[in-house]
Amino acid sequence: MATDLSDYAIIKEGEAEILMHAKNQVFYNKTQVNNRDVSIAVLRTFITKRKEEHEARLSKKTKTAVKESDKDASNCVVEEVPIEPANHEEKTNGDCEMAAEVSQDEPCSVSEEPEKVTEGKWCGELKPPRVLEALSASGLRALRYAREVEGIGQVVALDNDKDAVEACRRNIKFNGSVACSKVESHLADARVHMLTHPKEFDVVDLDPYGSPSVFLDSAVQSVVDGGLLMCTATDMAVLCGGNGEVCYSKYGSYPLRGKYCHEMALRILLACIESHANRYKRYIVPVLSVQMDFYVRVFVRIYSSASAMKNTPLKLSYVYQCIGCDSFHLQPIGRTVTKNTSVRYLPGFGPVVPQECSDCGKKFNMGGPIWSAPIHDQEWVTSILSDVKSMKERYPAYDRISAVLTTISEELPDVPLFLSLHNLCATLKCTSPSAVIFRSAVINAGYRISGTHVNPLGLKSDAPMDVIWDIMRCWVKNHPVKPQPADQSGTVILAKEPVLHANFARAVASLSKAQTKKVARFLPNPERHWGPKLRAGRTITSKHISLLGPEAVNEHLNHEDGEEHDAKRQKVEDQPTPN
């Protein structure tokens, strides 16, 4: 059936083009170009790393086979040598295990169910990765994957809305033969599809409108060992502490409303994914975690190992946040005790804080558990950033994603959450030192400090809170403040003499490499009303001006008025004239 293009607007992003109807039938958000660009960059790096890991395993198994054959030859034993995996822990990368009776040069045996071989027998040749886009809407993301990512295999786009599936199929045809050969669209419930296709997809992409929590259990089961799960959460009001009880019901963690709430949202999502993976003797390894615009996006690899899964309590912590000052402390859930070669897993020691804050005397709020292990793999971040810079013309949002990745590459990977220098000064009612001076004081005290991609004013440091407050006490001695009421947190903090005498001399490492080169790290939005959009199917009215802008709303309303006028005129013309 031919499509009348006059009813559609053609939207081009990267190398893909889609047809969007004037009515709000299928969801599309221009803002998510940042999300899609980062996903493409990570996907390219994943394909490269996957190939390198496959070649390394292949080389290792070949060497093992050669050693075994040499050993048999020296013993004059003539028999066919089966190729066994050198280490059963290596069965975590998803391609497949070596068939016991198949030699290196022989072709792989064909399974009776070819669609379910992604994780099965270990073949000499690496198959292109299969990608599942669980919530495809217009299909733009799937089309960009198919057209822009070299070496990608089949891309399966799912949606449980008929209009969305029709739009996706229309867009697949509109994008030509490459899209038609690689992308397929199905009308299906993503949860059911993922549950009925366990360990079949090398990459699963979840980008729902709102919370991904209902999809996580099936998603962690559908990824092959060593595969990649890409997950977005846009319910930031819930994750950042606006509705703590809702967050707990969806993600199993209680959020706190600190300046670090957006990073805490990332860590809550990672802890939730890990929790779902653990139920199936699997665990996650985060490679990149990003907070941008109005959402968080995490990229994790999923592996299967009952023994490695025992380390999960070591990666999770509760957070104690003082209600009077910015002091926060982490309480690890678990610990290990090593004796000779045996390792025992025990509950963590606690509590890490007294009933009242040792700095200001106020009570603590407790949140979590959150993921307290690193949220990025710095090797991956470096690879992704170099790939983005080498192909900048292929990323529509190059400026924004390169700025974010540059900032992430300079973060301290092993320091959870961060402090806000302005909040510290607000507690003490003092003027703020420049970030360079404060960073220098921390470095001169023998600790590390860095920025964070989440907040331009945020500072990550491994310095304990008593050192941070000593530095601020020394700053206030040189920059006195007005007397404050005795019950104020700042007054209690300043009443104590500093144990550490801070050195505010400028340190060499007080500026990051990007700051030294004046590389832009935090860019403004490219246009007004850059943010979330209406859910598909909702009627656009004048109350949506704050989301869409007056031009878009007026254009839509005028279009609807024109259609209504044409429909009335057609109805009048169709009425029979009286004789």
UniProtKB/TrEMBL annotation:
Keywords: Metal-binding, Methyltransferase, RNA-binding, S-adenosyl-L-methionine, Transferase, tRNA processing, tRNA-binding, Zinc. SUPFAM superfamilies: S-adenosyl-L-methionine-dependent methyltransferases (SSF53335). One of its GO terms (biological process) is tRNA N2-guanine methylation. Transmembrane segments: none annotated. It catalyses: guanosine(26) in tRNA + 2 S-adenosyl-L-methionine = N(2)-dimethylguanosine(26) in tRNA + 2 S-adenosyl-L-homocysteine + 2 H(+). Residues 558-579 are annotated as: Disordered. Gene3D superfamilies: N2,N2-dimethylguanosine tRNA methyltransferase, C-terminal domain, Vaccinia Virus protein VP39. It comes from the Eukaryota. Pfam families: TRM. One of its GO terms (cellular component) is nucleus. Belongs to the class I-like SAM-binding methyltransferase superfamily. Trm1 family. Dimethylates a single guanine residue at position 26 of most tRNAs using S-adenosyl-L-methionine as donor of the methyl groups. This is tRNA (guanine(26)-N(2))-dimethyltransferase. It comes from Pyrus ussuriensis x Pyrus communis.
